[in-house]
Amino acid sequence: MGRSASRKPIKLRYGLVSITGNFRKNNEDSAFVDPDGRFFIVADGMGGQAAGEKASAMAVEMIPEALNAELDFKRSGKDTVSMLLDKAVAEANAEIMAAGALDPEQNQMGTTVVFLVAAGGLLHIGGVGDSRVYRLRDGRLKQLTTDHSLVQALVEAGTIKPEEAATHRYKNVLYRYLGSKEGGQGACVKSFESKRGDRFLLCSDGVTDGLDDDPLRDLLAAGDDPQAIAEVVVKAAQEGGSKDNITCMIVDVI
Predict the structure, then answer these.
(1) Tally of domains in the chain
(2) Considering the domain boundaries, does residue 199 fall inside one?
(3) Of 13, 11, 10, which is closest to residue 225 (Cα–Cα)?
(4) How high does pLDDT run on average in the chain?
(5) pLDDT for the residue 166
(6) Taking every annotated instance into account, which residue ranges of this chain make up the domain PPM-type phosphatase (predicted)?
(7) Using only C-alpha atoms, what is the Rg of the chain?
(8) CATH number at residue 65
């Protein structure tokens, strides 16, 4: 279980933009890029005042520390990677809950998190909350993560139609996030082989609040430079009426 078959290392490049946006006083989003290009994380904090900022900052500090300490990026098999990612997320969740319990002003703090990890010759994605990972491959855009939101649960139950979700009054209500007792129940990790030319988007819901899938796909397909694409996507989301902080990370397989 612990070791993978020999595969070539995956080479990745990225672009990142994170802005406060038009409607918020501070940016509660956080992002992390591994200096060695092995993993990428986006977190979207919540809780008011500085609580959301603290929660998202804790997530993007603790998860990298755990991965660097425990994960063999060259040889770990997908089951081991998945287990370690679940463990890292659960530990971050416990710390965020504990920090919130210690400070009455931060007792409602929490954060979403999504990640992309290159290990054992595979890519691994997952997360908790409603930040998302998308993949653009051969011109087709696919959402790889599933929102842990009340609206998504209603869609899956057949109570509402998917097209109703975007405007539903509960669209921003999460039933799982870091800082909640459900937040440590696993990161829904998916592992798969990459393909040269794959483009991944890791984003807070500030991106999808201002952009539907079709224009998002067109923007992601419109150039080669991931930094330039990130800048264009954030600008379009802002102009599209996003009412949140906006964080866009583009990761390309090269």
Answers:
(1) 1
(2) yes
(3) 13
(4) 95
(5) 81
(6) 13-253
(7) 17
(8) 3.60.40.10
Does residue 150 contact residue 170 with C-beta atoms inside 8 Å?
yes
Rounded to whole angstroms, how far apart are CA atoms 62 and 131?
18
Strand-pair category, 29-33 with 132-137:
unpaired
Q: Which is it for the CA torsion 76, 77, 80, 86, positive or negative?
A: positive
Q: For position 1, what pLDDT does the model report?
A: 46
DSSP character string of 50-113: THHHHHHHHHHHHHHHHHHHH--TTTB-HHHHHHHHHHHHHHHHHHHHHHHHH-GGGTT-EE-E
Strand, coil or helix: 4: coil
Whole-number Å distance between alpha carbons of 114 and 230: 17
Contact 120, 74 (CB under 8 A): yes
Angle between helices 213-220 and 226-239 (to 10 degrees): 150
Q: Calculate helix-pair angle for 78-102, 51-70, nearest 10 degrees.
A: 150
Q: State pTM to two decimals.
A: 0.95
Full domain range(s) for residue 226? 12-253
pLDDT at residue 201 tops 50: yes
**4 belongs to a structural domain:** no
Strands 29-33, 39-46: pairing is antiparallel
Q: Tell whether 29 is covered by a domain.
A: yes
The answer, yes or no, to whether residue 177 has pLDDT greater than 60, is: yes
Name residue 43's amino acid: A
- Domain assignment present for 73: yes
CB 50 within 8 A of CB 112: no
Question: Which neighbouring-strand residues pair with 142?
Answer: 135
